[in-house]
Amino acid sequence: MKVGIAGIGKMGNAIGSRLLGLGYSVTVWNRTSDKAGSLLNAGAHWASTPKVLAESVDTVITLLTNEAAIDAVYSGTEGLLSGAGAHPTFIDMSTVNPTKPPELALRVQAVGAAYLECPVGGSIGPAKEGKLLGFVGGHAADLAKVQSLLEHLCKRVEHVGTFGAGSTMKMAVNLPLMVYWQTLGEALSLIDHLKLDPQRVVDILSESSGGPNMLKVRGPLLVQALGHQKNDTVTVDVATMRKDMRTMLALAQTNHRELPLTSMALQKFNEAADSGLDGKDCTQLPVWWLGQGARPK
Would you give the DSSP letter of residue 108? Predict the structure, then answer.
């Protein structure tokens, strides 16, 4: 199977590296070619436009920033859909509002191609190891065609419903993790006066019943952040978290549900962004809370 990847950010690079290691023929496109350098050096092919990408592969995986980026890459004279005459299967792994996949499905189907949404849970490490969680929305028959490919990327591939269901499930999976960063900051504020070594604190919290797997994965970055050690690594930035939380709140409103904890956490993250954290890694949020947010107003 020839696989194309449109959108070579951190996850695109990790997934491309995984597929190349498994022997797949991989072709990539990105708005800026320099981000694809490591994949090209590892044997990936370069497509000059999204149209060329769609024409040269069996399956196209898209990992794009937001709905506007999806529209730009899929549509237009050089967009993916203009090259869909070869009838590739499109798999969008972007994290977007659940209203987007049904609309995109109609556009893809109109040109005779197959489409699935499959937003994934997990970060760069799990992506490189094929241990993501895939939340599929779409037709079972289309999933069957790419099941083996997705199983090389995901430890679990969950078909959760029709178009939009995958994005809805991704929102539900992400919500506790988003709120956790606020609760972690508050927990750390209780023990700040003890002046314990950050590594020790993170080890204790990681082993507790309230320590999520995410804390173990990002523990080293958190230790560095709490120790005020410079590290420019960004796994998930605050801006992305805020975007996703706004989507969660909009989805809840549509479904006539309330998310009070999410609303309050977003308010605090907005304050952190106003302090300059929007482009920073999520591990900086507890540090900001200890330094500014937890102080009486």
Answer: H
